[in-house]
Write a structure and sequence with these properties.
Strand content: 25-35%
Structural class: alpha+beta
Order of helices and strands: HEEEEEHEEHEEEH
Number of helices: 4
Shape: elongated
Low-confidence stretches: none
Number of domains: 1
């Protein structure tokens, strides 16, 4: 087993009793009699949210957008970005998520094998044999071990009021 797989496996073990969040996939339903139906976010599993990573029992994903499911309603928006996020939240509700549920959408599955070969996959890379993670486009890569330790601790023991 490689160092990367060991780190991910250890994180999964430490998170076994920690809360998971929903991972969904945006789908555009088929037209019926030529009439378009509203998109919905369908369940694709659950994951532990660790910053830029979503860790599932058998994969690691790069985080996309995070929305809270809500009932569709007429609203006025001053920004197109607000409208898009509201549409995603409503699509989550149409997909069966209860109101207020956190749903991750637009995620990307990372290729652990590619990282082990020395290639980058999303925010993960290998630098001098050490697994690294880039938590921001402007940030330098940092050791994955320290990143996972910090994120696992935050998830298991969130700060008061978080």
């Amino acid at each position: 087993m490689t160092r990367l797989r060991e780190l991910l496996g250890a994180a999964r073990s430490r998170l076994a009793d920690a809360p998971r969040e929903a991972v969904g996939e945006l789908v555009q339903p088929r037209r019926i009699f030529g009439i378009a139906r509203a998109p919905r976010i369908v369940p694709h599993g659950e994951a532990w949210h660790l910053g830029v990573l979503l860790l599932t029992p058998d994969a690691v994903l790069a985080t996309g957008e995070v929305v809270r499911s809500r009932v569709p309603a007429r609203r006025g928006y001053t920004a197109e970005n607000q409208r898009r996020r509201a549409e995603l939240a409503e699509a989550a509700h149409r997909g069966g998520y209860p109101e207020g549920a956190t749903v991750h959408v637009g995620w990307t599955e990372l290729d652990v094998d590619a990282v082990e070969r020395g290639e980058a996959s999303g925010p993960l890379s290998l630098v001098d044999g050490e697994p690294m993670v880039r938590w921001s486009a402007a940030a330098a890569p940092q050791p994955l071990a320290a990143y996972l330790d910090e994120r696992v601790e935050l998830l298991r023991h969130p700060p008061e009021g978080a």
